[in-house]
């Protein structure tokens, strides 16, 4: 069986991320992202070039988790796909690209973090024991969704 692969990108969150919801209640995470670029010189050194900027979106429970976890300046890796979208700019229809993320994580090569390997049940307080009146929608999603589509 062949190895399954999907497109991915790496970069940094260049804007304050936004979480919105459509009329059906589906979450949408949006962030303007930047990607650094370098040019290799003949002597083997690298010259940093101007970064490029793009749109990143994510939908559903993953969007809610990303809104909770990511801030402007964070370095990330995302898996998903590129799609074109149309929108109005200065009263003209324009087509641009956006990266639709299925998964987004902090870049482990550039981010310090701690891995919690306790079983999921030990990491989370059961929903029934929490005061549902004080829980936000994002917290609820984090309890119901472990970031792996489960």
TrEMBL record:
Organism: Rudaeicoccus suwonensis
Regions annotated as coiled coil: none
Region (Disordered): 117-150
Bias-annotated ranges (Basic and acidic residues): 117-133
Protein name: Single-stranded DNA-binding protein
One Pfam family from the record: SSB
GO MF: single-stranded DNA binding
Superkingdom: Bacteria
Record has DNA-binding as a keyword: yes
Alphabetical UniProt keywords: DNA-binding
